[in-house]
Amino acid sequence: MVSPTPTPTLLQPTLPMSKSQKRKQERRELSLQAAVLELDLNDPRFLDEKIQVESALQYNFKDLILLREAMYTLKWYAARLPNGVLLKEANYGLAQYGDGVLRDVLLACWFGQLGPDNTRMLIGKVQQRVQAVITDKYLKKVADDHGITDLIRKWYPTAMMKEPGEKGIATTIEALIGAVAIDSGGDREVLRKLLVRLLGVEL
C-alpha cells in the first residue's frame, strides 16, 4: 500500500517586530530575571541621587527610605525597601499622599491671602490657580527645571522606553512632596518653603 504524499506545509514568513513589540518582549524577559528588586540605600547611584535631590529641594531627609521610595519609578517591577516594605506600584502610593498635601498647602496659603472680603469669583480663581499648578505638564516642567527628570532617566534599563513619561515624572514630584511631608512630620512651614522652591510660586 502506497502511503499518501503529505501535503507540504506553507511556512508563514516571519515579519520583523516593531519597536514597541521589541520593547514589550524585552520587558517580559527582564521581568522574569528579577521578580523583586531590592532597593539598597548604599547603592552609589542612589547616594549620588540623594545629594542632587536634596540640593534641588533644599531639604535633608532624616529617613532616607522615604527618599528611596519617592524616586523609585519602575512600576513594572515590584521592589522591596530596606525596611521590608514591598512596593508593587513603585512610588504611586506616596505620590497619592503628596498630591493631597500639594493641594492642601496651596489652597490654604492662597485662600489665606484673600482676606475677609473674598468673593465667590476670587475663590474660583484660587481653585483655577491650584488646578493649573497640579497638572502633569506643569509638574513635568518642574522636574525638568530642577534636574529630577535626568535622575529618573538614569534608572531606566536600556531595554525600556527611551524616556520616562510625563505622568511618571509628575508622579515623582508628588511623591517627593509626600516624602517631605512625612519626614518633616507635616511641618507647614517646611512644606510652604518646599513648594515655593520647587514650583516657583508665591505662598
Provide a brief overview of the structure.
Helix 4 packs antiparallel against helix 5, helix 4 (92-112) packs across helix 8 and helix 4 packs across helix 9 (188-199). Strand 2 (78-80) and strand 3 form a beta hairpin.
Task: Explain what you see.
By secondary structure, the chain is mainly alpha-helical. It has a single domain, classed as Ribonuclease iii, N-terminal Endonuclease Domain, Chain A. The protein has helices at residues 19-33, 44-57, 64-70, 92-112, 120-133, 136-145, 148-153, 166-183, 188-199; strands spanning 36-38, 78-80, 86-87. Strands 1-2-3 form a three-stranded mixed beta sheet, with no helix packed on it. The longest helix has 21 residues, at 92-112.
Strand-helix topology:
Layout: H1 19-33, E1 36-38, H2 44-57, H3 64-70, E2 78-80, E3 86-87, H4 92-112, H5 120-133, H6 136-145, H7 148-153, H8 166-183, H9 188-199
Helix pairs in contact: 3-8, 4-5, 4-8, 4-9, 6-8
Protein name: RNase III domain-containing protein
GO molecular function: ribonuclease III activity
Pfam family, one: Ribonuclease_3
Task: Please name the defining characteristics of this protein.
3 strands, 203 residues, mainly alpha, 3-stranded mixed beta sheet, Ribonuclease iii, N-terminal Endonuclease Domain, Chain A, 9 helices
Report the principal-axis shape.
globular
Figure out the total of helices.
9
CATH topology: Ribonuclease iii, N-terminal Endonuclease Domain, Chain A
What is the gyration radius calculated from CA atoms? 23 Å
> What value does the average pLDDT take?
81
Largest sheet, spatial ordering of strands: 1-2-3
Biggest sheet details: 3 strands, mixed
What is the percentage of strand-forming residues? under 5%
